[in-house]
TrEMBL record:
Originating gene: tsaD
One CC-aspect GO term: cytoplasm
Protein name, per record: tRNA N6-adenosine threonylcarbamoyltransferase
Binding residues annotated for Fe cation, in chain numbering: H110, H114, D307
Domain Gcp-like as annotated: residue spans: 22-313
Gene3D superfamilies in the cross-refs: 3.30.420.40
Organism: Luteococcus japonicus LSP_Lj1
UniProt remark on cofactor binding: Binds 1 Fe(2+) ion per subunit.
Family: Belongs to the KAE1 / TsaD family.
GO function term, MF aspect, one: iron ion binding
Length: 344
């Protein structure tokens, strides 16, 4: 199916077009620069930016894909989770398009889109497969039974998301928002063994109750205490070493529990998605550990890990292939939509 996907859950306005698993266009306009001075996404600013960017992104995507609206088999759109005011811009745009073209509308789950985007790079996914969704707002371990209909959350963070931890640690180190890419870069110049930061929820006792869960707030606090102490003692802060050591702690736990999930459930395939899945150390360590465990790892190219319209389009294509029922024209945005609901 030929599907157009619209994404507007946070600060990226995305319009993507796919034919099955083939990527035809992926236009992304980010308002990230407008949020930098606030150190995080400002919802009102994001909503306004979506309004301004949506139609140009749509026009560029159609031109790039060389597709006419009349050829589409459906309009897919993020219905949640995300920022309410941001989601409604995409949803209103998609509804208007669907009404104008008389094409079916599919309101979809943003998180399932992060998981589905890998199909564009590596084709259909053998299931059941394990998945790690690591983004700015979520960190979840999943079992994917069917990408269009059945994703089960097995564990997740009990406090901060991994991306949130990256962003907060960057702030502590005086690095700009968003912190993930900057820390990734700094870490490549540092020693990951310089400082031993805590690995959340990995003691024997923690594992009893939280085998597949994550916690990053203790790690974030440990980094900020370490930095404060150095500064108080009048010592310089070895930025690259702190970044590398923080990153090592985060990626160590993320990957160890992912491997444990595969072994526990006998999963032979594993994929990653979400903004933090672009992280070089996470990708590298996961490759090492999954290979050792005999699990085939699938990693979408870094450029497809962060928010975009193509991930919603390809999820829409899977939903259509599975005979998913079009959404009602009066569906609303759901800022807390759980991954168990893929099609609204
Ligand atoms: P959600 O998908 O949970 O609603 P979101 O859409 O805001 O949240 P994404 O766009 O998927 O999140 O990812 C953004 C996050 O990814 C930010 O926290 C950012 O710091 C992080 N990130 C991006 N690139 C990297 C990287 N190379 N290393 C680590 N983190 C990264
Ligand atoms: Mg973003
Ligand atoms: Fe996202």
């Amino acid at each position: 199916p030929l599907i157009l996907g619209i994404e507007s859950s946070c600060d990226e306005t995305g319009v993507g077009i796919v034919r099955g698993n083939e990527l035809l266009a992926n236009e992304v306009a980010s308002s990230v620069e407008q949020h930098v001075r606030f150190g995080g996404v400002v919802p009102e600013v994001a909503s306004r930016a979506h309004l301004e960017a949506m139609v140009p992104a749509l026009e560029r995507a159609l031109a790039t894909a060389d597709v006419d609206l009349s050829e589409l088999d459906g309009i897919a759109v993020t219905a949640g989770p995300g920022l309410m005011g941001a989601l409604v811009v995409g949803l209103a745009s998609a509804k208007a398009l669907a009404a104008y073209t008389n094409k079916p509308l599919y309101g979809l789950n943003h998180l399932a889109g992060h998981v589905a985007v890998d199909l564009l790079d590596h084709g259909s996914l053998p299931t059941p497969a394990g998945a790690l969704l690591v983004s700015g707002g979520h960190t979840e371990l999943l079992v994917v039974n069917d990408i269009a209909t059945d994703i089960v959350q097995v564990g997740g963070t009990i406090d901060d998301a991994a991306g949130e931890a990256y962003d907060k640690v960057a702030r502590v180190l005086g690095l700009p928002y968003p912190g993930g890419p900057v820390i990734d870069k700094a870490a490549q110049l540092g020693d990951p063994k310089a400082i031993r930061f805590p690995r959340g929820l990995t003691t024997r006792k923690d594992l009893e109750k939280h085998r597949f869960d994550y916690s990053f707030s203790g790690l974030k606090t440990a980094v900020s205490r370490w930095v404060e102490t150095r500064e108080r003692d009048g010592l310089d802060v070895p930025l690259n070493d702190v970044a590398a050591s923080f990153q090592e702690a985060a990626c160590d736990v993320l990957t160890a529990k992912a491997v444990d999930l595969c072994e526990h459930h006998g999963l032979t395939h594993f994929l990653i998605g979400g903004g933090v899945a672009a992280n070089s150390r996470l990708r590298g360590l996961l490759e090492e550990r999954m290979a050792a465990a005999g699990v085939e790892l699938r990693r979408p190219r870094p450029g497809l890990c962060t928010d975009n319209g193509a991930m919603i389009a390809v999820l829409g294509s899977e939903v259509v292939k599975k005979g998913g029922k079009p959404s009602s024209m009066d569906i609303g945005a759901n800022s807390g939509l759980p991954i168990s609901t893929i099609l609204v």
